[in-house]
Design brief:
single chain, 192 residues, mainly alpha, 2 domains, 12 helices, RVT-Znf, Reverse transcriptase zinc-binding domain-containing protein
Length: 192
């Protein structure tokens, strides 16, 4: 089945129509799931990406962070966060510069290369007494709360809110201790 999007289709519709090619070879599997009345996201994911092994899969499983932090983490892991460089691709912005330091804002850059965010990482790791330097996205084991806190800090600055880095760090650390995320974070670093 070959379906072409219309010229004026939204980027969401174009993305959906691009997936039709994946469904074609798996029609029998889809029909079986529909007949049973049990369509599970895990099954769909396995059909679309058989044997996919993501370095971040441990971050999602049994994560104790707040749901909103896990959603931001999920979007970041799938490279779907609305960074400025991504918004430029969809013609929603004309400037892809980081609102914190004026360099191109990608997910990799924002969470691991931007000096403001690196400072947040280093302060949190220092406070929880972990000797670790965040490196690159695919290899990093980062707590969802830190990703969420860094995203909120960036958004506050980009949208004109006066943001205090120390308050952002304190909030993230509080969440790590209160939500139990620190225990999971440390076990990943120390046991891997």
């Amino acid at each position: 089945m070959d379906v072409k999007p219309k010229v004026n289709s939204t980027w969401i519709m174009r993305g959906i129509l691009e997936q039709v090619g994946f469904i074609g070879p798996n029609v029998a599997v889809w029909n079986t799931m529909r007949a049973k009345g049990k369509i599970r996201m895990k099954s769909i994911y396995n059909i679309l990406k058989p044997g996919a092994d993501k370095s971040w899969h441990r971050l999602m499983k049994n994560n104790l962070a707040r749901p909103r932090a896990i959603i931001i983490l999920w979007l970041a892991c799938h490279m779907k966060l609305a960074t400025k460089s991504r918004l430029v691709i969809f013609d929603l912005m004309t400037n892809s510069e980081c609102g914190l330091c004026n360099k191109e804002e990608t997910i990799q850059y924002m969470f691991f290369e931007c000096e403001e965010i690196k400072n947040i990482w280093s302060r949190i790791l220092q406070r929880i007494q972990v000797n670790h330097t965040p490196k690159i996205w695919d290899e990093e084991i980062a707590p969802a709360e830190t990703i969420y806190g860094a995203w909120n800090f960036r958004n506050g600055v980009c949208f004109g809110k006066i943001m205090d880095r120390e308050i952002a760090v304190q909030d993230i650390i509080s969440r790590l201790f209160l939500e139990g995320g620190l225990v999971r974070f440390l076990s990943h670093i120390l046991l891997d």
